[in-house]
Amino acid sequence: MNSKLKLITTGGTIDCESINDTTNEYSFSESYIPKMLEQARNKVDIEIEFLMSKDSLLINDDDREKIFQKCLSCTEDKIVITHGTDTMTETAKYLGTKIKDKTIVLVGAMIPYNQNLSDAMFNLGTAIANVQILPKSVFVSMNGEVFNWDNVRKNKELGVFENLA
After folding, report:
1. Neighbours of 132 (CB within 10 A)
2. Please, are residues 154 and 161 in contact by the beta-carbon 8 Å criterion?
3. Catalytic residue among 10, 13, 82, 126
């Protein structure tokens, strides 16, 4: 399990600096992902690529196509994508219908890394472990669970991801 992984950042709560409670706008300065990996004492060979820093509500199909093209061009066949939770399932579906020869895990957080009681570190670590052992396909990894790209939704009332069924 020593193959190199690609980690692609797209923004979202996991990597935002702050959220304005009045406007609900996210601010991004620098990515927290390298700091998170260092703090976790990560030993997996990971190449980080900073693709975009967006609130997932602003991610559209043009952005999804950029994410798809980036996944296609990666030499690595194991990819973790940090993504905002509001549209993570849409991006997973977009990728899941197009990519069959790589293992891709999308991950995010409900609370930013730099805030108390954040789920960011746990979710990122789980996604890194999952991408190394899952078969080739696209998955969402949140809160200790793994979901297939075509059987997942975000339950906004409970603040968790769950199977569609």
Report:
1. 16
2. yes
3. 13
pLDDT tens digits, 117-162: 999 999 999 999 999 999 999 999 999 999 999 999 999 999 899 9
Q: Per residue, what are the HEC states of the chain?
A: CCCCEEEEEEECHHHCCEECCCCCCEECCCCCHHHHHHHCCCCCCEEEEEEEEECHHHCCHHHHHHHHHHHHHCCCCEEEEECCCCCHHHHHHHHHCCCCCCEEEEECCCCCCCCCCCCHHHHHHHHHHHHHHCCCEEEEEECCEEEECCCCEEECCCCEEECCC
Q: How far apart are CA 28 and CA 1, in angstroms?
A: 33
Mapped to the 3 state alphabet, what secondary structure does 27-40 carry?
A: ECCCCCHHHHHHHC
Tokens representing 20 are 């304005």
85 is catalytic: no
**Single-letter amino acid code for the residue at 106:** L
Place of tokens 């197009």: 98
The predicted model scores a pTM of 0.91
